[in-house]
């Protein structure tokens, strides 16, 4: 198939492109490479896919990978560009689309709400319109566990009420689900929303806990432990995540009944890990104890997440089987190598 992956320079997007290429698909990666975090990391991810930085820096100019010249290309583009994105769809004739591009981050949405409206709402509408007008066979898109808000029922199930988001980021993701439902209903477009739970692993985002903790410990700085450490997360290793996404992308959608055209799934590790246990795993792998600054919970944060992924297991034989001890070691090995760090 020919697949568009938006957010291709991002953490999950990069890993998904790599897997889809290994499976023999043709992939077009799209990303605007914004400066929410260090763009060098984004360009280095693209370099792993064969796209040189100087080629990827130019907007709206598709470039072909030197590593995968017949199967991977990249274009720097804003999702909300209502002229450029339809032209890309009209030129490339995609079979399927995986929309991972979004302005990420719960806390940052308190500081820069406009960025979330532009990318997550206007950009997603543009994707939906392009899928409608170019007969895309299946749109898979990133939602988030943050839509559950202050839900107290554990583990989180897709059937639970998600009408009370506690951050603008969560509100935009809930809006994406509603928008996708409308387009599936009105225009017969198969859409699948994936509520991602805390994803970690090599090439991870610098604003995520795994990265922040590791960087602080290596550099002899205190780590910020919110809610005084009384937090739990469904930490999910990146390989398990993209394997699940790829299984959905590879499904034949032509036979889907009308009632199945709109679907939502949790995608996580199917268990919850205490934050302090997670920190301990990092400490053990670094051979160094963290200096801990215990702080109250942050606005927009929740105390515990835990994904019920029974539906994804039943429908796709999804198997999140990477133990947190293995995943943490893999990240730290990558971090030390990528940044040329040693632990003293």
UniProtKB/TrEMBL annotation:
SUPFAM superfamilies: NAD(P)-binding Rossmann-fold domains (SSF51735). Residues 3-268 form the NAD-dependent epimerase/dehydratase domain. InterPro entries: Epimerase_deHydtase, NAD(P)-bd_dom_sf. The keyword Cell membrane does not apply. Keywords: NAD. PANTHER family: EPIMERASE-RELATED. This is NAD-dependent epimerase/dehydratase family protein.
